[in-house]
Amino acid sequence: MSARKLVILILMAGVCGAAYYWFAQGTGEALPADPDLSPPLIYPSSSPTRSPEPSTDQNTNVTSQQRTQNTAAVTEKLPAADLHIGAKAGWWDALDPATDAILLALHARDLNQREIYLQQGLQQDPFNPVLNMALLEHCIAQIGSTLCDTQALETLLTLDSENGLTADFAAIQAYQNGDYQSSLAALEKAAKSSVTDTYEWRLMDMVAEVLTREERPLDNQFMIDVMREAESRSSVRMGALFQMCQDQRTDSVWQSACARRGYALSENANALGQQDFGLGLAMSIADDPESLYRSLLQERNARLAHTSEIVQRFDAEVLENSDWRMSAAQWRSFLDIFAREGQVAAYQFMLHNTAN
User: Fold this and answer.
1) Is 339 helix (H, G, I), strand (E, B) or coil?
2) For residue 242, what are the CA distances in angstroms to 80, 238, 248, 292, 351?
3) Rounded CA gap, 249 and 257, in Å?
4) What's the pTM value of the predicted model, to 2 decimals?
5) Low complexity composition bias: which ranges (predicted)?
6) Residues 273-321: pLDDT tens digits?
7) Measured between alpha carbons, how far is 45 from 342 in angstroms, rounded to an integer?
8) Low-confidence residues of the chain: pLDDT under 50
9) How far apart are CA 25 and CA 48, in angstroms?
10) Three-state secondary structure along 319-336?
């Protein structure tokens, strides 16, 4: 059985649902409109502790003025548009283009509309990590856009240089530019990273701000809406990383680097979906994925049982419990723990510190 066929079989069985989603994108297979991104069956250890506020360099040469100059052409060439066209029902109706451009950019399907939102976001908050990540993902597919230069990557490197996420983007960007040596070096750096933060906790915080403006209670539906938006947004980075590794799988050096990046993700990503993708990436590049799967399953059996218990309890006691409530302070602690220790630790905090 080929590696690709085995990976598809495993992913369809629910072991690595997130990885299958991006494998489909990389091979041109039709993607579901609402993919099932529920937690899979195999989870690695929780991510290492980390400060929720990345370090910043006040001397950075990336400024809002530079960004505005580079992106001014966007509004000149694009027609005026209704920024609420296609907005989802419910709380999405409360989004304000003047303050919520980043959220709108993350979900805009029309490319012209997305670029308007991205430009507005750059003018409002050019150092926002979620915004720069969104711009980098946009530029993977829209290389020729006037918004796409080196500044988004430089900004993210300045804000969060030790984050494996930035090295992933550096590898993809260099690969697209035909600089395979630099791409491999960046991939090696990502494989050695001690943490990968894709800022889901930041995105959850942004969505929560909108819900708070609507005076929504901090109940189970609040948590469902926040988590759904954070977990369902697309991640072009995963698709590009997966495809890059598949393209180079016959090269032993690339194969090793891709496998080690997958293992690193499965061990140090603070979001469960990223951990699962890392496992799928490592398996997809292996010469004997069946043997690898068996060994990983045996090795991680105890962690599997522990994490499965936490996820099931969180679903039952929080998400499916209409009587569940949390305080504003508990919500802030949840986000802080998610950033520093990972999603499972954040779940445990909620289970231990909130009540019906």
Assistant:
1) helix
2) 37, 6, 10, 18, 35
3) 10
4) 0.76
5) 43-56
6) 898 899 899 988 888 877 877 777 777 777 778 888 999 999 999 999 9
7) 10
8) 1-49, 52, 54-89
9) 30
10) HCCCCCECCHHHHHHHHH
Hey, what amino acid is at 119? Q
d(C-alpha 108, C-alpha 20), whole Å: 23
* Cβ-based burial of 245 (10 A; exposed 0-12, middle 13-18, buried ≥19): buried
Q: Give the C-alpha separation, 112 to 200, whole Å.
A: 25
- In the 8-state DSSP scheme, what is residue 94? G
Q: Which amino acid is at 185?
A: A
Reported in sequence order, the residue ranges of 86-164 that DSSP labels E, i.e. its strands, are: none
* Coil, strand or helix at 219: strand
Alpha-carbon distance of 335 to 249, in angstroms, equals 37
Cross-strand pairs, 325: 219, 355
CA distance linking residue 154 with residue 336, whole number of Å: 25
Q: What is the 3-state secondary structure (H, E, C) of 154-180?
A: HHHHHHCCCEHHHHHHHHHHHHHCCCH
Q: Who contacts 185 (Cβ-Cβ below 8 Å, separation ≥6)? A: none
**What are the residues facing 219 on neighbouring strands?**
325
Q: How many CB atoms lie within 10 A of CB 215?
A: 6
Residues β-bridged to residue 297: none
Three-state SS for 90? helix
Residue 145: predicted pLDDT: 86
Between the alpha carbon of residue 133 and those of residues 129, 136, 197, the distances in Å are 6, 5, 11
Number of neighbouring beta carbons within 10 Å of residue 41: 16
Q: Three-state DSSP class for 81?
A: coil
Contact 202, 130 (CB under 8 A): yes
